[in-house]
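By way of example, what follows is a protein record of this kind.
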Amino acid sequence: MYHYSKVIVQINLGNFGSTGAIMRGIADCAAREGFKVFCCYPENPHNKSIQDGDYIICTDRQRRICSRLSRYSGLNGLFGVFLTLRFIKWLSEVKPQIIHLHNLHGCGLSLPILFGYIKRKKMKVVWTLHDCWAFTGRCPYFQIAKCDKWKTGCHECAYPKTSYPETKIDNTRLMWKLKKKWFNGVEDLTIVTPSSWLASLVRDSFLSSYPVCIINNGIDLSVFKPTPSDFRERYGLGRRGGDCPKTNKLMN
């Protein structure tokens, strides 16, 4: 049995890459503020080392089975039923004050069961969107297909079937309707986006009823910082953008 006064549970498709680093950075920051933070994700060959407080949603084999079922059915987030029931049992023991969602595609959980539980328990949720998957029928980046069907209802998907998440069947019409049903109706949910551009897309989607907060992704200031350089002198640049002779030539 767990006994913590302030608990945050984060869910992501792994602890690797940019989203994994963001999840871990948030966990470290929240821990310094006195929160107990659990990072939840499936096993994945790309994962970094497991840390204390991590909850492994499923094995890599179970994750790959869910992925394969999604690929051949065109459905995503409908599998891993028993894994999700086990996860929900654990959540009821942890009793988090906040559930922080990240990328839910490929996480191995049954999303209707997870969101059903969140709605019943009236849990406080923060959902950081790292792409557009949450409000499309399938694709994380609809710009590839130059498509805006996600605004009114996906169908006859132009997104390449071999692109992530790969599929053999176009079930985007159904998936768009299911996501709209699953993800709406959460009593206390705030969406976070890393850019104004993505925030504007959320406001045009079926998630528009939720408040959107823009928090730009941070950078490592020990790496990205001003350094002495003769770059401006070498390329004839002034101290300000307006002083650039090449820019002035184009503007005049």
User: Anything to note?
Assistant: Residues 136 and 150 are 5 Å apart (CA to CA).
